[in-house]
Design a protein that fits this description.
This protein is α+β, with helices and mostly antiparallel strands. It is 29% helix and 32% strand. The protein has 5 helices and 8 strands. Strands 1-2-3-4-5-6-8-7 form an 8-stranded mixed β-sheet, with helices on both faces. The N and C termini lie close together (9 Å). The mean pLDDT is 96. Bound molecules: coenzyme A. Residues 39, 42-43, 100-103, 108-114, 136, 140-143, 145-146 line the site of coenzyme A. The site of coenzyme A (COA) has 21 residues, from β5, α4 and α5.
Length: 184
């Protein structure tokens, strides 16, 4: 297996373009999804209060892309180029990465998260990821369904593992860990 290949900055699917974020994306990310409490409810990061919060994320994104074979991606419509959401690979070691997905409210229920997760797996494998996992709040049925549709296996419950700051700040709760093993 070829290891440590830089993931492409752009990934195309039938309906979507996933691309590395750029500095000029902050305002659209903020208004489309990062500032919407309904969208961020089950996420591990606090709802953005100002576009500077989104700019800080973009600095983090650049650092991730510098250090690792990949980092965050934006999800855009192939038809009109509209920003729909975000996803990415969060490398922890050269072989282990997490993933996730977030969509603007008007983009829910159209299969975009499933299409996004399916598209992330191949570049992850090519970049050397052997364990690709996602954490999910146990109550978050749509996200669990997306992971199951993409053949991620429920590995177990991580006890008192993660804070969901938009549900209850400062308290770590149990989370479900779903995994896809990409190595041999
Ligand atoms: C969760 C989220 C990513 C789902 O995106 P999406 O594009 O609507 O997902 P998809 O359309 O690909 O698939 C959703 C699946 O969940 C199902 N679903 C929706 N609501 C459900 C519910 N209450 N219970 C069970 N399944 C449900 C859908 O029917 C669909 O499954 P199906 O294709 O078998 O019918 C989207 O709602 C979102 O961005 N939410 C906010 C951010 C977030 O919570 N991200 C995930 C963090 S773990």
């Amino acid at each position: 297996m070829e290891l440590d290949v830089k993931a492409p900055a752009t990934i195309e699917t039938p309906r979507l373009i996933l691309r590395r974020p750029a500095a000029g994306d902050a305002a659209a990310m903020f208004s489309r999804y990062a500032s919407d409490p309904a969208v961020t409810r089950y996420l591990g990061w606090a709802t953005h209060q100002a576009v500077d919060d989104t700019r800080a994320f973009l600095s983090f994104s650049d650092a991730e892309w510098e250090r690792w074979p990949a980092g965050p991606y934006l999800i855009c419509s192939r038809a009109g180029g509209e920003l729909l959401g975000g996803t990415g690979l969060g490398f922890e070691t050269p072989q282990r990465a997490s993933t996730g997905y977030v969509l603007a409210r008007d983009a829910w229920g159209q299969g975009y998260a499933t299409e996004t997760l399916q598209a992330i797996v191949k570049p992850a494998r090519r970049a050397g990821v052997q364990r690709l996992y996602a954490l999910c709040h146990p109550d978050h049925r749509p996200s669990r369904r997306v992971l199951e549709k993409c053949d991620f296996q429920l590995e177990g419950t991580l006890r008192r593992h993660s804070e969901f700051p938009n549900l209850r700040r400062g308290v770590a709760v149990d989370v479900l860990c779903y995994v896809s093993i990409l190595g041999d």
